[in-house]
Structures are given as structure tokens and as C-alpha cells.
Amino acid sequence: MRKSDKTLPEAEVRLTVPFHDVDVMEIVWHGHYAKYFEIARCALLDKVAYNYLEMKASGYAWPIIELKTRYIKPARFGQDILVRARIAEYELRLKIDYLIVDAETGNRLTRGHTVQVAVDLERQELLLTSPPVLLEKLGMLP
Question: Which of 4, 26, 38, 76 lies at a C-alpha separation of 20 to 30 Å from 135?
């Protein structure tokens, strides 16, 4: 991302931690955070009109090649949480940052990021730069 770029898109979803996501101590099992990130990522991609179906229709797949999660405080059964997703990089890859906070207090619970890369579906080749369609969707083309 260049400093001259406009503010990059972000999205936020509100979730209530369901019983089936927690362990015997009523704490969210660590693997479910990837699902929470995915829910927020889908809201973000919908917001820029480039969700997974639109990606496929444009001729590209965007597999996740990296997922990082930092656990700060546990989320618990019945807790309302806000999951924020923000595009952090887009030129060579699509990096999305996440922040999960308690909906009532705003206290940070978890943060992380994912990295996705473009794959040309016709040629089945990994691209070394983001295709113009992503830049267009983000409003980064002149």
C-alpha cells in the first residue's frame, strides 16, 4: 500500500458466541477464530463487490496462504463480539487485518491477519501481483 492511497475498505460484523464454539470452560476454542475472521472477510469482500463468486467470475481464485492469530483475552459463550476486517495490502497480495473486541466494553480479545494471493483459474498459475480487477474494485485505478 502506498501512503498516497485513499483509506482502504473495512467492515465489521457483530456475533454472539454460540455454545457449539466453546469448550467445557465456556471459552471459544482457538480454531473457531478463523471462522470469525472468515465471516468478517466475507462482509468486507461483499462491501467492495468482489466476493468469492465474483472472484471466480473474474477468472481468479484467491486462496489463503497465511493465517496469523494473536489471542489476547478469551471470548466466552454468549458474549457479543465485534469482528473487524480491514484491507491492509493489495498490490502484490491481499492482506486483511482483523480485530475482535468485546461489543460492550471495546476490550481487545483477538487480532490477526490473513494473506491471499491471486491464481489465474484458466492457467492455474499463481500471479506475482494483484490483477487489475482487484485494483478496480478498491477504486485504486486512475
Answer: 38
